[in-house]
Automatic annotation (TrEMBL):
Classification of source organism: Eukaryota, Metazoa, Ecdysozoa, Arthropoda, Hexapoda
GO cellular component: membrane
Domain (CRAL-TRIO) ranges: 94-259
Protein's UniProt name: Alpha-tocopherol transfer protein-like
Biological source species: Papilio xuthus
Annotated InterPro entries: CRAL-TRIO_dom, CRAL-TRIO_dom_sf, CRAL/TRIO_N_dom_sf
SUPFAM superfamilies: CRAL/TRIO domain (SSF52087), CRAL/TRIO N-terminal domain (SSF46938)
Encoding gene (name): LOC106117991
PANTHER family (alphabetical): ALPHA-TOCOPHEROL TRANSFER PROTEIN-LIKE (PTHR10174:SF230), ALPHA-TOCOPHEROL TRANSFER PROTEIN-RELATED (PTHR10174)
Molecular function GO terms recorded: phosphatidylinositol bisphosphate binding
CDD domains named in the record: SEC14 (cd00170)
Length: 312
């Protein structure tokens, strides 16, 4: 699927070479690995028989070309598509509900370029302090929609992800409406079902409410992710991790404004409208799973552990 807007600058030259090494990607054997994953999919009665090559290749990269890890990730990805209709259905960016969030509630665009070590940066910030419970769920849905677009459009692959969270408008009313179940489902998606190599999370414009937010979220995070969260009192400290010039203008950079980037990504999500609709049926069918079907109550139990899901 080739669409009219290319928002992600693809790494090239030495950066691309470093990424290949970090991802253990051999250009001579990667399509053999891709063929093996496609053959495996066809043999799984509970999973889709086919899927596009590009997202499968992205899963291989996110699994450092470990076929077994890739299989587990894919199984969980299609399982979550079936288990979380609140995230994976009605993904129409032109709907009034999603348009309201995209235009007036939050911004979360991935930035065009990559860092010198080949990592993609995404900046998330609120533009309105109030979200109701459904809007929080829809915000997480939109984040996963962006993730799905990147499955298709990270053509060369990246060495990992950096997220910058601007907490300037994070207020107590938002904390009061956070559902532990919804947050846990989202964290399982991000940590177990998507081929994301989360390298760093940076929080800027902090306030006392940020500590309460982190206390709420940390139980749902793997230990190695908790250690990758950095809080900065000054914006300049962030530049030690993300070059200033690749940041949006609001943060001292040169890649355009947050509003411009958000508008571009909104248009991108709209361009994928038909693709998202076609994905509704591409999910796991637990009635056909060999052995014991996935128990969603066990999977999402708030008192449960991530241990049974861990993929290192």
């Amino acid at each position: 699927m080739k669409l009219k807007t290319d928002l992600l600058v693809q790494p090239s030259g030495e950066i691309s070479k470093k990424i290949r090494e970090e991802l253990k990607e051999d250009v001579n054997t990667r399509y053999k690995d891709l063929a093996a994953i496609k053959e495996w999919l066809r043999k799984q009665p509970h999973l889709p028989d086919e899927w596009e090559d590009m997202p499968l290749l992205t899963f291989l990269r996110g699994s450092s070309f470990s076929l077994e890890k890739c299989k587990r990730k894919l199984d969980m990805y299609f399982t979550m598509r079936a288990a979380c209709p609140e995230f994976f259905t009605n993904r129409d960016a032109t709907s009034p509900e999603l348009r309201e969030i995209l235009k007036g509630k939050l911004q979360g665009p991935p930035l065009p370029g990559v860092t010198p070590n080949g990592r993609r940066v995404t900046i998330c910030r609120g533009v309105h302090p109030s979200l109701d419970g459904q809007q929080i769920t829809d915000t997480l849905k939109l984040a996963l929609m962006v993730g799905d677009v990147r499955l298709m459009e990270e053509v060369q692959g990246v060495a990992g992800d950096i997220y910058v969270l601007d907490a300037a408008v994070l207020g107590p009313s938002l904390l009061a409406r956070l559902s532990p179940t919804i947050v846990k489902k989202f964290m399982i998606c991000v940590q177990e079902a998507y081929p994301v190599k989360l390298k760093e999370v940076h929080i800027i414009n902090t306030s006392p409410i940020v500590e309460r937010f982190l206390t709420f979220v940390k139980p749902f995070l793997k230990e190695k992710i908790r250690k990758r969260i950095f809080i900065h009192k000054e914006l300049k400290d962030l530049y030690k991790y993300v070059p200033q010039e690749m940041m949006p203008e609001e943060y001292g950079g040169q890649c355009g404004t947050m509003e411009e980037l958000q508008d571009q990504w909104t248009q991108k999500l709209i361009e994928y409208r038909d693709w998202f609709k076609a994905q509704d049926s591409i999910k796991a069918n637990e009635s056909l799973r060999p052995g014991k079907p996935t128990n969603y109550d066990e999977l999402f139990g708030i008192d449960g552990s991530f241990r049974q899901l861990s993929i290192d």
